[in-house]
Amino acid sequence: MYAMERQQLIERELREVGRVSVVDLARRFDVTTETVRRDLDRLETSGSLRRVHGGAVSTDRASTAETTLTERRDRQGDAKRAIAAEAASLLGGGFRGSIFFDGGTTPAAVAAMLPDTLGTAGSGVEVVTHSLEAAHLLAGDDQLSLTTIGGRVRGVTAAAVGAHTVNAIAQLRPDIAFVGTNGLSAGFGLSTPDPEEAAVKSAIIQSARRVVLVADAAKFGEELLVRFARLDEIDVLVTDAAPPAPLAEALADADVEVRVA
Fold first, then answer.
1. Which end of the chain is more exposed for a tag (fewer CB within 10 A), N or C?
2. Contact at 8 Å (CB) between 178 and 215?
3. DSSP string for residues in 1-69
4. CA pair distance 25, 36, nearest whole angstrom
5. What global pTM score does this model have?
6. What distance in Å separates the CA atoms of residue 130 and residue 169, rounded to the nearest whole number?
7. Which pLDDT tens digits describe the chain residue by residue (261 residues)?
8. Which residues have a Cβ under 8 Å from the Cβ of 46 and sit 6 or more positions away?
9. Whether the Cβ atoms of residue 214 and residue 238 lie closer than 8 Å to each other
10. Phi and psi for 243 in degrees, rounded to 5?
């Protein structure tokens, strides 16, 4: 295979997946890792990608890059639904207590399954959220008690942020919280591009008795601008694929239960 053909295939994979690994590409193309690195260097020079440790990411995956809510709804749709179903099953039909839903499309997908998961038992459940999307999905259910937390709403996530939001969350002690993330890595933990979003997520994690992280495999290895939690601050990860070895080992060391939908 000519270098140009390899580079075109690398660019295609970046468009579809957003990240490539030197080792995986070398195995796939049956070439040395040095050859792959030269390909990546040329593509970086042309502006097609950004080199990171062990591989490369597309240029729109900078540490501050953030897609709109509509775009994120459309991405990994099947994975989000599978993750949501598995996460909701943690509650079981007899759950009683309080639930906090973080902003983001995957926590909202869990919220959408709550009425069917709880059934008539929902009358004993208190739901709290700062997410307009989650609140909209649950507002019509008479079985649930729903409380929304206000603040300045970020359009890109449709969730409240700011000091008022953080202070309100700090006064709570929900039994379980479903939290989303933009990035999840062995070395950096959980991260997001926006400092205000990070402050809210951190407050949720500090407040909840049990933290369930819901994140698809596209988040693995990503490190965004602001870390909001260490791995040992979450209890369960619900995802759609087994984490790669370094992340899996770090999660095991942090005593995080991993559930693959």
1. N
2. no
3. --HHHHHHHHHHHHHHHSEEEHHHHHHHHT--HHHHHHHHHHHHHTTS-EEETTEEE-TT--TT----H
4. 7
5. 0.76
6. 9
7. 888 899 999 988 887 677 788 998 999 999 999 999 999 999 988 888 888 778 888 776 555 555 555 555 555 568 889 999 999 999 977 788 999 999 999 999 999 999 888 876 556 799 999 999 999 999 988 888 999 999 999 988 899 999 999 999 999 999 999 999 999 999 999 999 999 999 999 999 999 999 999 999 989 988 898 999 999 999 999 999 999 999 999 999 999 999 999
8. none
9. yes
10. -65, 150
> In the numeric block, which tokens belong to residue 129?
């959220």
Number of residues that this document lists for the chain = 261
Q: Which two tokens stand for residue 4?
A: 């140009």
CA-closest candidate to residue 191, choices 237, 226, 231, 239: 226
For residue 254, give the amino acid letter: A
d(CA 230, CA 185): 10
